[in-house]
Amino acid sequence: MTTRTTIRCRSTTEAAELIRTGRLVAFPTETVYGLGADATNPDAVAGIFESKGRPTFDPLIVHVADVLSAQELVTSFSETAVQLAAAFWPGPMTLVLPRREIIPDLVTAGLPGVGIRIPDHPLALELLQLAECPIAAPSANPFGGISPTTAQHVLDGLQNRIDGILDGGSCGVGIESTVVSLMTDHPTVLRLGGLPVEAIEDVIGPVEIAVGDPTKDDSAQPAPGMLSRHYAPGTPMQLLQPEQTAVAPQGRRCGLLTYRRFAQDDPAFAPEVSGFEVVEVTGDDSNLRACAANFFQSLRKLDAKQLDLIYAHLYPPHGLGRALNDRLRRAIG
Ligand code: TXA
Ligand code: MG
Predict the structure, then answer these.
(1) pTM for the structure as a whole
(2) What is the 263 CA–ligand 1 centroid distance (Å)?
């Protein structure tokens, strides 16, 4: 593992200069922090895999500042791509499109498609403009771990494994982008994420969902890199159905990751909640956006408490609740 000195970038100009010279810089996006490198520089991209401990079969998302820059990386940008880009970029949506040669094999794990998105964050957009290159960036966490939604989370996992960090505060969306493949005639969601499937279907009609079953191993996954165990804390986890009463077993130090129901003030399910050492409430179920924004932060807080077990309530299975449930199922592996 290459040791690097991680500097806190004072400006997007400083961060862009690092990217241009082949270094690794973590930067904020509206979803989670990304670990960026010049997507056209294979050596720099190799550094991302080394720094994260990420297997090279897992492709990286390429970030660009505008639609024109996205079109330059692909051999075709279909009418569906035009519609989706117009509706949701900048935003938490990644489109997989047929790539041009300029994108190195390492970025796409040798696949014919490249995942591209325009992030909806002023610092990310400024960085992309100043760097004058597309930026490949996975979430800025050691492979398989919890995605970072603050600069401190990034440093907790990658200090001295990256060259710089650009601090933009907390990420507003809080979970990763929705990945939509346009490689076949039928648009297919490969990863549920920060843009609800319902919103996509409002624009282009029904889509296929092929996110795989988190309880199966990777060979069964339609999307590369969608490992069954991912986004995972170190503490063992157990899932509860939305209606299920949470009771911690006696003699074990347990935490609960939950949400308020029906916008009531009481912590969820109280007074039934009992025996937990810590309860983290992400929000209420009438505001799944807020739940998503707090989700990884809450999971980290529980993981830091050295508990025996973390119980987590599944969210209502619609909108962002589906993406959150996908993360929860992968967290238990
Ligand atoms: O919100 C996000 O998407 C964040 C921010 C930084 O943009 N990035 C992110 O990247 O979550 P990462 O590497 O943690 O997850 C990328 C996933 C891959 O594991 C894979 O499932 C899918 O996106 N993906 C990327 N490129 C792909 C491709 N060419 N074909 C199919 N799936 C792809
Ligand atoms: Mg990730």
Answers:
(1) 0.94
(2) 33
